[in-house]
Design a protein that fits this description.
By secondary structure, the protein is α+β, with helices and mostly antiparallel strands. The chain has three domains: about 60 residues, Beta Barrel (OB fold (Dihydrolipoamide Acetyltransferase, E2P)), CATH 2.40.50.140; about 70 residues, DNA polymerase, domain 1, CATH 1.10.150.20; about 50 residues. About 50% of the residues lie in helices and about 20% in strands. It has ten helices and five strands; from the N terminus they run E-E-E-H-E-E-H-H-H-H-H-H-H-H-H. Helix 4 crosses helix 6 and helix 9 packs across helix 10. It is globular, with a radius of gyration of 17 Å. The two termini are about 25 Å apart.
Length: about 200
């Protein structure tokens, strides 16, 4: 799986960049926030990548910040939200405002995003409220447990495990109180998920 690209902007279109990495052009779909931070063709660029694999297609989604990538991955875990709608959501609202709107259950703000209806906004609030990076909304630094959990969710999702199964397993394995190593918890999670 591709997780990171560093190269030059080859072409730039709203919601899409072609990134030249050592002579290979990667077609990367991006939210408007990332599009606006990207320089003109020929300038250096570095993107965090979510590789989305379907039976008939492999798509790359790129983000300028770790928070955008985290929110994208959490959005596509919501039933009824695919990658295209998740990009539309991230293009229609500042990432920190999105976190705050979900935590406050602000349906009016969420339904103002193009493509998001009332039912989708309600699902986002219900399914994501407990999984929001609260440190973003409060301005506090994320706890080591939150950062570890985010890394584990990303790794296990890329291995093809379903989000609900990942969350159940990590609820049992990840503790905020103790210093846990990524490798140890990942190994335990893989054992746990293989038994399910």
């Amino acid at each position: 799986m591709i997780a990171h690209l560093r190269g030059q902007v080859f072409e730039k279109h709203p919601n899409r960049l072609i990134v030249d990495v050592a002579g290979v052009g990667y077609d990367v779909q991006v939210p408007l926030s990332t599009f606006y931070t990207a320089g003109e063709p020929g300038t250096a660029i570095e993107l965090r990548i979510h590789t989305h694999v379907r039976e008939d297609q492999l798509s790359l989604y790129g983000f300028a910040t770790a928070l955008e990538l985290t929110m994208f991955e959490r959005l596509i875990a919501v039933s009824g939200i695919g990658p295209k709608l998740a990009l539309s959501v991230l293009s229609g609202i500042e990432t920190r405002d999105l976190v705050g709107a979900i935590l406050r259950n602000d349906l009016a703000r969420l339904t103002a995003i193009p493509g998001v209806g009332k039912k989708t906004a309600e699902r986002m609030c219900v399914e994501l409220r407990d999984r929001m990076p609260k440190a973003v909304a409060t301005g506090a630094a994320p706890s080591p447990g939150d950062a570890l959990r985010d890394d584990l969710v990303s790794a296990l999702s890329n291995l093809g495990y379903h989000r609900q199964a990942i969350d159940k397993s990590l609820d049992r394995l990840v503790s905020d109180a103790s210093e846990q190593r990524f490798e140890d918890v990942l190994r335990s999670a893989l054992k746990d998920l293989s038994r399910a």
